[in-house]
Design a protein that fits this description.
The complex is a heterodimer of chains A (221) and B (200). With 221 residues, chain A is mostly helical. Chain A has one domain. In chain A, 84% of the residues lie in helices and 0% in strands. Chain B is 34% helix and 26% strand. A five-stranded parallel sheet of chain B has the order 5-6-7-3-8, with helices on both faces. In chain B, a hairpin with a 2-residue loop joins β1 and β2. Chain B is globular, with a radius of gyration of 16 Å. Classes of the chains: A mainly alpha (221), B alpha/beta (200).
Chain lengths: 221, 200
């Protein structure tokens, strides 16, 4: 546990320190949300209808931004060797990395999502659900993204490969989350979508570290 | 603490190419082995196999009464060409992390910095360091968190004469304390070492 915290602290420092991380993701998010009315038309009723969906979709895409470097950086400079020879298992290393990714990009994005949704004219009653979906979905995006990043280790077009691996895995939480938000906005029963998304998220967090560790071992070999 | 490393009938391939096979080696407490051989003979691969990072094609590597996984998580250090130092972090941040991660303390990291003559460099970002300074920073964790087996890949190549001598002194102390060193080298080690040629 101590080793896990030491590593988590380093990962957070690296994510903040390199100047991109959370700010880049937030800027991307802000960009999508501000450009949308210009591209899709300014009619308020039209925007309000798509607002929850767009806010949610932009979250998923922003989560993709810094994924490629999640393992690649440590793989290239040899730090992954050091991490593999430490007191924590590679599974724990993978969890620490994904958690740091979530804390520095997923969580800030989820907290920024209400502003974007309100600016687009979404119904304020969906805000709590949007934040919850953003936080839980962001966790799933971070872990599934880490899975993609670890599988793409050592390949030349890593970024492209990450997107190809990760996008299909992002589909279920996007559908469940958007479904729940839509249902709530439309006054329909919405809990089923939320539960499905939380279940998917729990499965992603539980299972993907095993695959990430295996992929890292494979890349180091 | 590890007392022996036993390598039996080891074979390693990279892709289609067989680097070496039938390699037998025994390393005992207090002993150093210098691995020599032409470029690409498999010295680095042998070190990585001992560290458990690379799966050998055949043969086995054992550490007597310590499980291989435990040995790798707690009892060995590997310092290679890729030092894993992050160029945008300061030397101290990196040394501190590497030390804590491998089981040392902040105080032991300070001592190691002193021993490796790094004190003036600790506040600098790693990218400002020269190749030799960088290597000293990477080697500092050997001192900062005591582990019995050192796997070194060309450890002294970028060091100047003074620091080579100082590092030789550290290696001698490590061996006197019952440690073991397995080093891939082209120049002779500054401590008495058995020479094993890889891929001969």
């Amino acid at each position: 546990m101590k080793a896990f915290l030491i590593l988590l602290r380093r990962e957070l420092a690296l994510a903040w320190g390199k100047g991109g991380g959370p700010l880049l993701a937030l800027a991307f998010y802000a960009g999508v949300v501000t450009l949308l009315p210009m591209a899709a038309g300014r009619a308020p009723e039209k925007l309000a209808a798509v607002a929850p969906g767009i806010a949610w979709l932009a979250l998923a895409l922003a989560a993709l931004l810094s994924l490629e470097r999640l393992f690649e950086r440590d793989f290239e400079d040899g730090a992954l060797d050091l991490l593999a020879l430490g007191p924590a298992s590679l599974e724990a290393v993978a969890v620490a990395k994904c958690l740091a990714q979530w804390l520095t990009s997923g969580a800030p994005l989820a907290l920024a999502a209400p502003i974007a949704a309100l600016a687009l004219g979404a119904d304020p009653k969906i805000i709590p659900l949007l934040v919850l979906c953003g936080l839980a979905g962001g966790l799933a995006f971070a872990f599934l993204g880490g899975l993609g990043a670890s599988l793409a280790l050592g390949s030349r077009r890593g970024g492209l490969l990450v997107a190809v691996i990760v996008l299909p895995l992002y589909v279920p939480p996007v559908i469940f989350g958007a479904g729940a938000l839509d249902a709530l906005a439309g006054g329909l029963p919405w809990t089923a979508g939320l539960y499905l998304m939380l279940a998917y998220c729990a499965a992603a967090v539980a299972l993907s570290p095993l695959a990430m560790a295996a992929a890292c071992r494979n890349a180091l070999d | 603490m590890l007392r022996t490393v036993l390598i039996k009938d080891l074979a390693v391939s990279r892709g289609e190419r067989r680097l070496f096979s039938g390699l037998n080696l025994e390393l005992a407490a207090g002993e150093a082995i210098a691995l020599t051989g032409r470029n690409g003979a498999g010295k680095t691969s042998l070190l990585r196999a001992v560290a458990g990072l690379l799966r050998p094609e055949a043969g086995e590597i054992t550490f007597e009464d310590v499980e291989a996984d435990t040995a790798r998580a707690e009892h060995l250090h590997m310092v290679g060409h890729h030092d894993g130092l992050k160029s945008t972090r300061t030397a101290w941040e990196e040394l501190r992390f590497q030390t804590l991660w491998t089981g040392g303390t902040e105080a032991s990291a300070r001592v190691a910095a002193q021993r490796m003559d790094l004190n003036r460099l600790l506040d600098l970002e790693v990218r400002r360091l020269s190749a030799g300074q960088r290597r000293r920073l990477a080697l500092a964790r050997l001192v900062a968190s005591p582990r019995s087996l050192w796997l070194l890949d060309e450890p002294m190549a970028p060091l100047d004469a003074g620091h080579r001598a100082a590092f030789g002194q550290l290696m001698a102390e490590h061996l006197n304390g019952g440690g073991m060193i397995l080093a891939a080298v082209h120049d002779p080690l500054p401590v008495s070492a058995r020479i094993v040629e890889v891929g001969a």
